[in-house]
Amino acid sequence: MPGDQVGRIIEAWQRERPDVDVSSIGIITPLWRLGAIAAENRTRVLGVHGLDQSHLDVLATLRRSGAPYRLTAGELSRRCRVTAGATTQRVQAMESLGLVERVREEPDRRTVHVQLTPEGLARLDEIFAVVMAGDDRLLAGLTPAQRTSLEGLLRDWLVGLEQHPVAGGAGVVGEVTGP
Amino acid sequence: MPGDQVGRIIEAWQRERPDVDVSSIGIITPLWRLGAIAAENRTRVLGVHGLDQSHLDVLATLRRSGAPYRLTAGELSRRCRVTAGATTQRVQAMESLGLVERVREEPDRRTVHVQLTPEGLARLDEIFAVVMAGDDRLLAGLTPAQRTSLEGLLRDWLVGLEQHPVAGGAGVVGEVTGP
DNA sequence: CCGCAATACTTTAGGGCTAAACGAGTGCGC
DNA sequence: GCGCACTCGTTTAGCCCTAAAGTATTGCGG
Question: Same domain for B58 and B113?
Answer without folding.
Answer: yes
